[in-house]
Specification:
alpha+beta; 5-stranded mixed sheet; 1 helix; 5 strands; globular
């Protein structure tokens, strides 16, 4: 898959801090803010591994760079209610 799927996480620079976002119904609001890109990436990857989704980077919310793959072999994520 070359674009984020529902449930995937992405890391985006927001003014002077880095924020972790989740693709879905409320993708414009950060779930977490972190002081550094490295911390945001670490948190995004831990969360993505738990729920088996992928991690992406975006500078503008339009173009995405793939960072890490955690989906199962069939491309499915774990439902949020299962995690």
């Amino acid at each position: 898959m070359t674009v984020p799927q529902s449930g995937d996480h992405f890391v985006r620079l927001m003014k002077n801090s880095v924020a972790i976002f989740s693709i879905g119904r409320d993708r414009q609001h950060p779930q977490e803010s972190c002081p550094t890109y490295e911390e945001a990436l670490r948190r995004a990857m831990l969360s993505a591994e738990k729920t088996q989704v992928d991690v992406w980077y975006t500078a503008d919310g339009v173009k995405f760079e793939f960072l890490a793959h955690y989906r199962d072999a069939n491309g499915r994520a774990i439902d949020a209610q299962q995690s």
